[in-house]
Amino acid sequence: MKNFKPTKYVLENLATGRRFEDTGWLLEDPQGEGPSLIRAIYEKKQIEFGSQEEGIYRFADWLPINHTLKGSAATQTYKSKALASELGLPNLYISFSGYWPEKGAFMTTGSFKETEAYSVCGRLSHNKKGVLVVASAGNTARSFAKVCSENNIPLLLSVPEDNIDALWFEKPINDCVKLISSPKGSDYYDAIALADKVCTSEMFFAEGGAKNVARRDGMGTTVLSAAEVIGRIPDCYFQSIGSGTGAIAAWEANLRLIEDGRFGNHKMKLFPSQNIPFTPMYDAWKAGSKTLLPMNDEEARIKATAIDAKVLSNRRPPYAVRGGLYDAMCDAGGDVELADNNDIKEMQALFLRTEGIDIHPASAVATKGMINAFNAGKMPKDAITMLNITGGGEERFKRDHKIVYLKPSLIALASDEGIITRVENLFK
Q1: What SS3 class is residue 13?
Q2: How large is the average pLDDT for residues 314-329?
Q3: 380 lies in which domain range?
Q4: DSSP-assigned letters across all residues of 153-167
Q5: What is the pLDDT of residues 110-123, one digit of tens each?
Q6: Residue 286 within any structural domain of the chain
Q7: Residue 307 falls within a domain, yes or no?
Q8: CA 195 – CA 198 distance, rounded (Å)
Q9: Could you give the angle at the alpha carbon of 184 between the alpha carbons of 410 and 245, nearest 5°?
Q10: CATH value at residue 375
Q11: Separation CA 221–CA 112 (nearest Å)
Q12: Is the residue at 164 inside a domain?
């Protein structure tokens, strides 16, 4: 974008309502006393959508960014015909993030995690020192690697070794990006612990996950895409969840659209879905609990490694924090749905047959969750429905391109002796 000026916004502590300036890489209120997400409050209340050529930055009015980066693409929303007809859902809109050239979808990592990466890296100021650290179960790492590689941003990724087959690319990754992994048999929780340990060094700083307003508002552009195409806020929203951050982002985008005044004044019901047997947020929600139910580490690890949608295996989701998924669900209404590994294969086949493109396991979980909710009568069949397909076209992309993989420079646990020095040496 030529002559781009930083977006004007302030930050708000969702627990206290205190508003303050974003003085840098703030992930929480410096004066906050308890755990709470912060939210970007934009000066511009009515969004102006840019051109498709601007990629995700066509939504820049509601992204907390200082500059734009090359290579981004935006989510594409369209009204479904074949899948909608088969399911008897006349008002089904699909928001597709991935690679599907015929639909104008050009996310070359095949995942909506690109919406996060381009927003987070756009929030970085040019004088920010140190190495950005991102812990991931797969798709997030692939997207951040692409963005940082193409824009020369130092990046350290922490991904479980069992998940590194997700780190595929169309071209070799710039040396400014390094990968470390927790060993085979470990899970996303172990990768997070490794990243947290590394971030105790002054050389590194954490991306922040759900606490980073840029990550959530990047994800929220999927809802902005839907509202633009439909002309109104959807009645219900379906997405699979690992951390729940995408559903939180959808709720926040909904609130901004209400304030905009041109898209309706209602809150869409949220229907996030989890992959059986790893269902901590489903279990807590169904129990009416504001906090996650107790689960020992070994049980959690076994369940997390058993699911096919590996990206949905977050054991530390922002569920209970102020402004987190529990608050979003209580405010918007809705329910948490489930899908098992067999459902995933069935939904992938259904989507490919009806819509004509392959989808990620996590997107299949969302599709099954939608079917479950409608079959249970939780929404009328003619509701204006947004199905957030958070990843797709990967098989299509791999057919069309030669693929290379990023290999780990180091395999270790957070408890390993001298781990910080060993990781620091990767960037010297």
Answers
A1: strand
A2: 95
A3: 76-110+214-398
A4: --EEEE--GGGGGG-
A5: 999 999 999 999 99
A6: yes
A7: yes
A8: 5
A9: 85
A10: 3.40.50.1100
A11: 10
A12: no
